[in-house]
Design goal:
single chain, mainly alpha, two-stranded antiparallel sheet, 20 helices, 68% helix, globular
Length: 481
């Protein structure tokens, strides 16, 4: 792409109102190209991913039917987080919202850490998801895994550079496939329980939820050990916040999308698990095997495996597509605030962050190569870091909302039109819950390594921040507001 096709945005001092709702292009050079239909499906799709389609198998084997309760409680916490985010978004809807709010309400270093950590989260997630998508392709085609990974990365990269509308359309249809699959599974299970058809008809009963060792067959400890798996499944639900600067009507579309969180979790997680565990006893599920595939096999529906493989492929591509989208926006937000290289501010004429998206896509390609060469435990340890880095954004959302609410109540800032109910108490509750998740991750040897990686990443960020500040001490981006 030639330089004449790219607009360079100056990185002057970002005022508190940058990217406000009244500006047609978000005040950041972006185009408001995401409509209500796309925002709704992005919000829905963000809560449905491979964590549900695949990860639930391991969680079921650890906790049994009590996993339903874990998803319900965790879902309530996610709703508190999303309402806190919604309050901030209606105060000031901007792309790269997490780092912007951290910068405003905590300080420049918090914004720096949040932006780069969320960027890392999506790069790592993109690496794993595009690799997973390539593995799923081998179900139908005998092609080298790297070929599929390369093809998917190029296609999604190109789509994200064309326009935000293309990203929105891809997410809309990816989410539609996932939603249709889960709704179809629920309806089939309801039919089996009421009409008794299929091979599972004679044994299907809701009594499976308590007859196979009770509702807590592995005890409370086993149930708590699934917290990190459950929270990983919910990662990316906050993606709707990154779209704020490119939503056509953020004051209407974003609150509506956030308010759908309770029924999304009730249907797609709690409802789906109740149905599956009523048709198939929890003792028949195994780690590493999709509970949806296992349920279809129990029903005697052979085509189910192929259907689920297609759905999981779609979920992986959806996650990688979201990674391409969000990483470019986060890098540009950091660059606009002087906390990243200036060339990341470059936009195409269609309003997409060229340099940031290209840099992130290149790293995803390197990750695919690394996974191909060394697919051992070291790569899995890096993947586990995604949960910690993703949860950091949630912590920043909650802390910023608490501080914003205090200032708004004192009359120092305008009151948001979409106030979080029960805040700040609900935000404090959510922070305590996230702390419990971190504790459980430290207890579990399978996820403990991610806690060792977090201090290393923090040290890298601290050194980088001090170097940048020393090079440009007059930069307003490093001065606490």
């Amino acid at each position: 792409m030639s330089s004449t096709q790219v607009d360079t945005v100056s990185d002057g001092e970002p005022g508190p109102g940058r990217g406000g709702p009244s500006t047609p292009h978000g005040g950041e050079g972006y185009q408001r190209g995401l409509g209500a239909r796309q925002i709704q499906m992005i919000a829905i799709g963000g809560a449905i991913g491979t964590g549900l389609f695949l990860g639930a198998g391991k969680a079921i084997s650890k906790a049994g039917p009590s996993l339903i309760l874990v998803y319900a409680v965790a879902g309530l916490v996610i709703f508190f987080i999303m309402r806190a985010l919604g309050e901030l978004l209606m105060y000031r809807p901007v792309s790269g919202s997490f780092s912007e709010y951290a910068r405003e309400f905590i300080g420049p270093f918090a914004g720096f850490v949040t932006g780069w950590t969320y960027w890392l989260f999506w790069v790592v997630t993109g690496i794993t998801e595009v690799t997973a998508a390539a593995q799923y392709m081998t179900y139908w085609f005998d092609v080298p895994q790297w070929v599929s990974a390369l093809l998917f990365t190029i296609i999604l990269y190109g789509a994200n550079l064309i326009s935000v509308k293309i990203f929105g359309e891809l997410e809309f249809w990816f989410s539609m496939v996932k939603v249709t699959a889960i709704v179809g599974m629920i309806l089939i299970c309801v039919g089996i329980l009421t009409l008794g058809f299929s091979d599972a008809g004679d044994t299907a009963t809701v009594a499976h939820l308590w007859n196979q060792g009770g509702f807590f067959p592995e005890g409370i400890g086993g149930t708590l050990m699934t917290l990190q798996i459950v929270m990983f499944a919910f990662l990316a639900v906050e993606l709707v916040g990154v779209t704020a600067g490119e939503s056509k009507d953020p004051e209407k579309t974003l609150p509506k999308a956030i308010n759908t969180v309770p029924w999304r979790i009730a249907v797609f997680y709690v409802g789906a698990l109740i149905m599956i565990l009523s048709v198939v006893p929890w003792t028949e599920f195994q780690p590493g095997i999709s509970p949806f595939v296992a349920a279809f096999e129990k029903m005697g529906l052979g085509v189910g495996a192929a259907i689920v493989n297609f759905v999981v492929l779609t979920a992986a591509l959806s996650s990688c597509n979201s990674g391409m989208y969000s990483t470019g926006r986060m890098l540009r937000d950091l660059a606009l605030n002087g906390q990243g290289p200036k060339f990341f501010t470059r936009l195409t004429r269609s309003g997409t962050p060229l340099a940031g998206t290209t840099f992130s896509a290149a790293l995803m390609m390197v990750g695919v190569w690394i996974n191909y060469q060394w697919p051992g435990e070291a790569f899995n340890y890096v993947v586990s870091f995604a949960t910690i880095s993703g949860m950091w954004a949630w912590v920043m959302i909650l802390v910023c909302q608490i501080r914003y609410r205090a200032k708004a109540d004192r009359g120092e800032l305008p009151v948001s039109s979409f106030r979080a109910p029960g805040a700040p108490f609900t935000s404090w509750f959510a922070l305590c819950f996230l702390a419990l998740v971190v504790v459980m991750m430290g207890i579990d040897p399978d996820t403990r390594i991610s806690l060792y990686c977090a201090p290393l990443w923090a040290a890298i960020l601290l050194v980088s921040y001090r170097v940048l500040r020393a090079r440009d001490p007059q930069n307003a981006a490093f001065a606490k507001r």
